[in-house]
Amino acid sequence: MESRRSGRIRLKVYGVEKTLVDCFRHRRRLGMEPVLEALKDAISQHRLNLDELWRQAQAQRMQRVMTPYLEALL
Description:
The protein is of the alpha+beta class. Helix content is 65%, strand content 14%. The protein has helices spanning 16-25, 27-30, 32-44, 50-59, 63-73; strands at 2-6, 9-13.
């Protein structure tokens, strides 16, 4: 996470890995199609650090949910 300022407001900016885990976490609200599309895009653009993705998944207790999708795509 990094912080940026926009005028007087401080914004928190998170990485691709945390954003993907958050997408899986809210998959019922978002639907699986956009979540999987985001994962595929991150993989195809080589913007994904798998170690960091796994750390974020463990931190948010999403590794059991994400494992089948990661195994299928990688």
